[in-house]
Design goal:
By secondary structure, the chain is of the alpha+beta class. It is 14% helix and 17% strand. The strands form two sheets. It has a two-stranded antiparallel ribbon with strand order 1-2. It has a two-stranded antiparallel sheet with strand order 3-4.
Length: 81
């Protein structure tokens, strides 16, 4: 096999069940909306926006970015944010 293609398909031509041998980025990223509800920065958003998150970054409409943390959740009905 041509060495150029080997970097993508491996030495066995891709017959091992893997389509590519390229590095994977297992980090997932998502977007959601919310509303700042208090002067000290509490944000109300839907549970599915933060569910399972290990890191949360908030970007405001004026492009300021802040690290955030979950202080409570309610997997009940979805709120229109």
């Amino acid at each position: 096999m041509d060495p150029f293609f080997r970097q993508f398909f491996g030495d066995d031509g891709g017959h091992s069940g893997h389509h590519f041998n390229a590095p994977r980025n297992d980090r997932e990223q998502g977007l959601g909306s919310g509303v700042i509800v208090s002067p000290n920065g509490y944000i109300l958003t839907n549970n599915h926006v933060v569910e399972g998150a290990t890191e949360i970054q908030v970007t405001t409409s004026d492009k300021h970015e802040y690290k955030a943390r979950v202080v409570g959740t309610d997997p009940g009905p979805i709120l229109p944010c």
